[in-house]
Amino acid sequence: MNVAGLSRRSLAKLISAFAGARVITAQGESEPQLPEQAIYYANHSSHLDFLTIWAALPADIQKRARPVAAKDYWGSGLRKAFAEQIFNAYLVDRHGSSHTRQRASHSGVSPKGQIAGMAEVLSAGDSLIIFPEGTRGDGESIAQFHGGLYKLAQQNPEVPVVPVTLANLGRILPKGEVVPVPHLSTVVFCDPLHVAPDEDQQAFLTRARQVLVDCLAQHQATVDTADDEGGASAAGSQPGGDGP
User: Fold this and answer.
1) pLDDT value of residue 99
2) Strand order in 65-70's β-sheet?
3) CB atoms inside a 10 Å sphere around CB 199
4) Are 12 and 54 contacting, i.e. CB atoms less than 8 angstroms apart?
5) Domains observed in the chain
6) Whose CB has fewer CB within 10 Å in the chain, the N or C terminal residue?
């Protein structure tokens, strides 16, 4: 492994440690067996989301994985340098040249025309990490998906679509906050999906979204319970907690 590769792995370990990220499969296995190339899609609640997924990938897959990131946040200064040079992110303009153009788009992450750019990333043999909600949510629920995920999956049927559920990431860097707070989180790699023959856009997006909804309900509840138990244990371990 070269120096750049070592630096990326060190950074990946740092990100995972900071996020307290536990990486598992939907079956609870701790070492996901992932395809060499995939379209990874996830729920979106924090600017740390793509960093955490990237960090959770094995080294040989990580170097060919390109997160799709918002240009309005990651497209300038030090953030841009990190996004493009370290994470090899594919930056997109979420808003386009006008709000009308954005509303007319079904990509979920970019105006019309950038789906073609993401398709070129796949044609080059790289993977994509995308967020089909199109914007960050509250971490507790998942918004309806835009159509870009379906279009990419339909145009590239040989590339598996891998759902990734992120539980608790929104609590580390909540929307509107700039200072991260270390917190336990879970990254769940679910079984790959493919567009079924004659499956239309809405049916596929509903199916793809439901995988994340069901998985988040399971693992968010698990994290909440662990937090409650941890808090209770901490309180109980402090003798004289009611004292002056």
Assistant:
1) 39
2) 21-25, 185-189, 161-167, 39-42, 127-130, 65-70, 90-92
3) 15
4) yes
5) 20-234 (3.40.1130.10)
6) C
CA distances from 124 to 21, 91, 93, 117 (A): 30, 17, 21, 11
pLDDT score of 12 = 72
d(CA 41, CA 33): 16
Q: In terms of C-beta density within 10 A (0-12 exposed, 13-18 middle, 19 or more buried), how is residue 120 classed?
A: exposed
Residue indicated by tokens 């960090």:
55
> What's at 240, amino acid-wise?
G
Q: Would you state the pLDDT for residue 179?
A: 43
Q: Are 168 and 184 in contact (CB under 8 A)?
A: yes
Tell me the mean pLDDT per 10 residues along the chain, length 244: 58 68 89 95 85 90 91 84 86 59 39 79 97 80 94 96 87 50 77 96 98 92 51 36 34
41, exposed or middle or buried, with CB in 10 Å at 0-12, 13-18, 19+? buried
Give CA–CA dist 242/233, Å, rounded. 15
In which region does residue 20 sit, left (phi positive, over 0), alpha (psi from -120 to 50) or beta (all else)?
left
Environment class of 26 (CB within 10 Å of its CB; exposed 0-12, middle 13-18, buried 19+) = middle
- CA–CA separation, 16 vs 81, rounded Å? 20
Give counts: helices (H), strands (E), the chain: 10, 7
